[in-house]
Amino acid sequence: MWWRLSLPLPPVLEESLLWKLESLGLHRLAVQHAPESPDQRTLLAWLPASEWPQDQRDQLLNSLRPMAATFGLALAEPLWEELADEDWSLSWKKHWQPDPVGQRLLILPAWLQVPEEHAHRLVLKMDPGSAFGTGSHPTTRLCLEALEAMPPRDQRVADLGCGSGVLGLASLALGAREVFAADTDSLAVRATTDNAGLNALTAEQLRVSHGSIDALAALLNGEEADLLLCNILAPVIEALAPQFASVLKSTGRGLLSGLLVDQAPRLIEVLAECGWQARPIGEQGRWGLLEIKRLIQ
Known about the structure:
single chain; Rossmann fold; 2 domains; seven-stranded mixed beta sheet
């Protein structure tokens, strides 16, 4: 027997709640949404009934409420459904659909075929269950659309906080020469490696390491990147900003997302103190995207 949790999900909460559930050891997750209605999403989670009695399910929801409160929201009313002997993996898979991004990219769950209407797109095959960050979150879409608008042709790309690896996959599909990626979450490192394999990429095309910016710098081995991708939360970006010069060329460009629009002014000031000129180049809802370049001395 299984419990299936269905929870209406504002886009601003998606990454936070998925991170929280993953950190609690819950990996049978999906986000149900139609590409034409990106603001209407439902978080789905499958829990073994024998391990999740009523009091444990109540505690689980109580642990999620502070995540919503951070954004001034209340957690939506959940729906619990008891499912008799459901093969959760098949049920989970049916909730994922091909997801077009911008004009040229298609995020495709690895078990699906490319729909005929999207045959012209660059396909990024993904296993959505291996880590969050598959492209549906506004911060990820902002980065993907920015990559498409200015493709990193023949560039060395550094992806700090790579998650599922989707930004590195997109960079290579759009012409990047090589991608170096790092994440402090070992599950994300494994997910990026697995997703690279799904896209028939070699270890020379996409290299990934466990760790933060120091691990990324070691992976680059003294050859700074032309483009830095950093889709992580604003306080983490602020803490890492003094070390950006160790991974990004003085003539390079960075795309920083994972930040709220109202966090951008402070972040721009911090980046300026570190020698980077930052400017907002996109936003979706409450989320924003910054581009950084070296300040001209």
